[in-house]
Amino acid sequence: MTDPGTTASAPPPPTTLGELRDGGAAFRPVKAEIRANLLARLADGEPTLPGIVGFEDTVVPEVERALIAGHDLVLLGERGQGKTRLIRTLVGLLDEWTPVLVGSELNEHPLHPISVWAHRQVAEHGDDTPVGWLHRSDRFGEKLATPDTSVGDLIGDVDPIKVAEGRTLGDPETVHYGLVPRTNRGIFSVNELPDLAERIQVALLNVLEERDIQIRGYRVRLPLDLLLVASANPEDYTNRGRIITPLKDRFGTEVRTHYPIELADEIRLLHQEADVSWRGRGGGEAAVDAPIVPEHLAEIVARFTRLVRESNHVDQRSGVSARFAIAALETVAASAVRRAAVAGETRPVARVVDLAGVVPASRGKVEFADAGSDPDDERELEVLDHLLRQATAQTFRARCAGLDLTGLQEHFTGGETVESGDLVPAAALLGQLGTVPRLAELLGRLGVPESEQSAEQAAAAVEFALEGLYLTRRLAKDTDGGRTVYGA
Fold it and tell me: Which has the closest alpha carbon to 122: 11, 20, 4?
């Protein structure tokens, strides 16, 4: 429990039941609290679920309607579609601080006690009953459903120590409460609900409908106040388990999630989620700055992810997680930092050559349709490599359509070559080309502002142009391990 603290202009928060009642406080159920805060955000034009990308016109309105209706809900969608992220974002719709009885295991509101212990506290201390304050970040609970999850984990069980102290089995205070009751007056999430054994799912029926719990054959009347949200993957219904029909019926709303529909949303998600802000030390004592991943490389990764999702070689039921694209972009950035550390560069900028590390690193994140037929089959790598080249070609056409690159091509008319590789620094790459015709126009097409143009950015742009010329069959290329030779 965290103290809300005070400010110079704000009075101190009530610390007793009497002070709370005198201040005009009133009990409000958690669903009413969420509804009021959601409607206030809608009226003010603020994002209701900040950080959720690609769902603005589809999933978010459905979730908003469910919350306004006061429904418990289940999110249904393939892996990596942001279900858990969306659920955790719901916490922001709770009041920032809420009063609770000090010492309550169930986060009970001082004006609405529900347990035998709480009623006794109020009866004994009256207006002097101690009041504490709970931050909304402490009002969220979640459980990843696994086959070994028990009723005791979720709901609770009889505590043998309390029985040994002299309490009877019928005494509600012999109960050691599980995760669901301990999240009273908050939001509780069950992730991958179909993985929960059917007999354990039955234990949630009363929580969703009657709002009470049953433990060890006797009923503990607890009018729990919470929002229950679950997530599930459609594949789970056939491969691992299912949501039992009575439980599905008790969820007020089922919301189907999806991967980003628009390419722009895929790229925006990458920029939001990929962690490429780290720094390191390069050759000698030179500090290596945080890597720069040019926009055209982020677009290649986004297009690559979408092509993998659409490929006939990939198991469509499993899906391709957003984590696939995020990890790919982080791998590209790491390759640039590695080159900077070896070559002594202080400003690492990712290039097309850094994409080569994405294919082997991402293989384990994709379920292929014919997986398991041959564990040594290299066709999986070939499929991914082909799709990556296709994504690069699509990006080149989208970014450089109509751009005159004949000047760059003319460099190779006399049999000259340009060697690149994941450890070839920008200066060495540019030094092989000399003056690059229309370089400023190329950088502009790739969205590099004049203030950020540098030798490293120029090398990234030129290498992308060379790769595009190769993919459109206007330039030869030979690859051997980490060494790439354009021309000849």
Answer: 20
DSSP H or E stretch at residue 191? strand 186-191
Please answer whether residues 70 and 35 qualify as being in contact, where contact means their C-beta atoms are separated by less than 8 angstroms.
Answer: yes
Local confidence band at 111 (pLDDT 50, 70, 90 cut-offs)? very high
Q: In Å, how far are 307, 382, 389, 460 from 471, measured between CA atoms?
A: 17, 16, 8, 16
For residue 3, what are its two tokens? 């103290």
Structure tokens at 58: 């589809």
DSSP state of 175: E
- 262, 270 Cβ separation under 8 angstroms: no
Report the share of the chain in percent with pLDDT over 90: 62
CB 409 within 8 A of CB 474: yes
Say if CB 142 and CB 133 are below 8 A apart: no
CB 162 within 8 A of CB 174: yes
DSSP lists the bridge partners of residue 429 as none
Query: Could you tell me which residues are beta bridge partners of residue 232?
Result: 76
- Copy the structure tokens of residue 485: 């030779």
**Tens digits of residue pLDDT in 247-282:** 888 999 999 999 999 999 999 999 999 998 876 654
Residues in the chain: 488
Burial class (CB in 10 A: 0-12, 13-18, 19+), 45: exposed
**DSSP output for 265-297:** HHHHHHHHH------EE-STTPEEPPPB--HHH
